[in-house]
Specification:
Largest sheet: 4 strands, antiparallel
Structural class: alpha+beta
Distance between the termini: 191 Å
Protein name: Protein HflC
Helix content: 55-70%
Membrane topology: Single-pass membrane protein
Number of strands: 9
InterPro entries: Band_7, Band_7/SPFH_dom_sf, HflC
Pfam families: Band_7 (PF01145)
Main location: membrane
CATH architecture of the largest domain: 2-Layer Sandwich
CATH superfamily of the largest domain: Band 7 domain
CATH topology of the largest domain: Tetrahydropterin Synthase, Chain A
Oligomer: single chain
Number of domains: 3
């Protein structure tokens, strides 16, 4: 009888334990997770460490949240700057659940958290962009105003410098160094991102969220502003191209002048040499003629008269008289 009661008690205990185990008194918190234990709508425990945990079956509910850093990607917004020029701003952020108890109380779910982040960060981005100029949003430094001409013409400078002399290259750089001054910035893009973070951080902290950073991922000009920016870029490149053309025209005239001077020098030298050679040749010819004609004076006079006839008579249109000494060899057999 006693043994039966013991067996019955053991069976009852086993059944109770089995039911208890079936109802699930244990739960697991994985690495990278944190959990909030809810009993009758109240938070009774927060688990931050991974491992096997115990709860009250049926009564307690477990809500798990990631501990890892998560990313938030906002939708691009068309926002006016302080000059009332519209730009498209695309931002991203990193965040994590710092206080799971407050997170559950204020938001409860991850999708709801993304919705709250949309509201808070988008509002901060719009406010910061609207308070600053477009230059502050798109640039992080004033280095563009400190560029010299060699940086402005870019990679072409290396090729040009190898083709021309150093003095000429510096002359070209001086021509290209036109005065293009961009608006100076006081904050810059990084500082604006920090302001967006500062403006958002306190608001999301009330939700148990730690906002790690807010980054302007991309800024794109609106269609009406894009054309103006492109026109400015085209104008700058056209000024550089005009400097190239002016330099090329100057170099062409310089080289043509140098070529003409060299041509004149060569021709002058050649003419002087030719005159000298002709003088020597004429002297030698006169000597030879004198020597040859001196042997027979009559033959010399005949030859000279015949040469004269050959040159002059084809051009004579009218002869009034041949009774002159000039024609003596034509009409006088004896000359």
């Amino acid at each position: 009888m006693k043994n039966n009661r013991v067996i019955t008690a053991l069976v009852i205990i086993a059944v109770v334990i089995g039911v208890f185990l079936i109802l699930g008194p244990f739960y697991i918190v994985s690495e990278g997770e944190q959990a909030v234990l809810i009993r009758f709508g109240q938070i009774v425990q927060v688990e931050r460490d991974a491992g096997l945990k115990l709860k009250t079956p049926v009564i307690d509910n477990v809500h798990r949240f990631p501990k890892k850093i998560m990313s938030w990607d906002g939708e691009p917004q068309r926002i006016p700057t302080s000059e009332n020029q519209f730009i498209w701003v695309d931002t991203t952020a990193r965040w994590r659940i710092e206080d799971p108890e407050r997170f559950y109380e204020r938001i409860t779910t991850i999708p709801a958290a993304f919705g709250r982040l949309d509201d808070v960060i988008d509002s901060a981005v719009r406010a910061v962009i609207a308070e600053n100029s477009i230059a502050e949003a798109v640039r992080s430094s004033n280095r563009i105003n400190e560029q010299d001409a060699e940086e402005l013409i870019g990679a072409d400078a290396t090729q040009i410098e190898g083709d021309i002399e150093e003095d000429s290259f510096r002359e070209l750089l001086d021509m290209i160094a036109f005065d293009v001054q961009h608006d100076r910035i006081n904050k810059g893009r990084r500082q604006l991102s920090q302001e967006m973070l500062d403006n958002s951080r306190d608001d999301v902290a009330d939700f148990g969220i730690e906002l790690i950073d807010v980054v302007i991922r991309q800024i794109r000009y609106s269609d009406d502003l894009t054309e103006a920016v492109f026109n400015r870029m085209i104008s700058e490149r056209e000024q550089i191209a005009e400097a190239y053309r002016s330099y090329g025209d100057g170099r062409r005239e310089e080289l043509l002048g140098q070529l003409e001077r060299e041509r004149e020098t060569i021709l002058s030298t050649a003419e002087a040499q030719a005159q000298e050679i002709r003088a020597i040749a004429d002297g030698e010819a006169a000597r030879i003629y004198n020597q040859a004609y001196g042997q027979d004076q009559g033959f010399f006079e005949l030859w000279r008269s015949l040469e004269s006839y050959r040159r002059t008579m084809p051009n004579m249109n009218k002869i009034l008289s041949t009774d002159m000494d000039y024609f003596r060899y034509l009409y006088n057999p004896e000359g």
